[in-house]
Amino acid sequence: MLVLIVANNPDLSGVWANHLERLGAMVTTVTSQEEATRILCEFEVGVIVLDLMLMNGSAIAVADYASYRQPDAKVVFVTSSTFFSDGSIFNHMPNACAYVKMQTPPEDIAAIVDHYGRV
Asked: What pLDDT is stored for residue 94 in this prediction?
């Protein structure tokens, strides 16, 4: 399974990637909407770990594009904000499968991705 991590902080993405690779996932990390859409055009992605507060504000665009280009790909939204804390992200993004805080332990994020990435 290919996991795409789209986040502002490459160090944190690396920690998440290490935990996911230990579970057998192939992982690609990117920091922008442009990079994410390129990956979504070139490869089949099982799960996207997506920083809701992506630097250029385009996290929703990435999730929306993924729902069009790869409708079976699940999105785990990760955030340091309280925006969408009411759970409304699930009403707006049909491919959203989880919404977690940035402080969530990496092994928990890996377990969530592993759960939703199983075919």
From this structure: 77
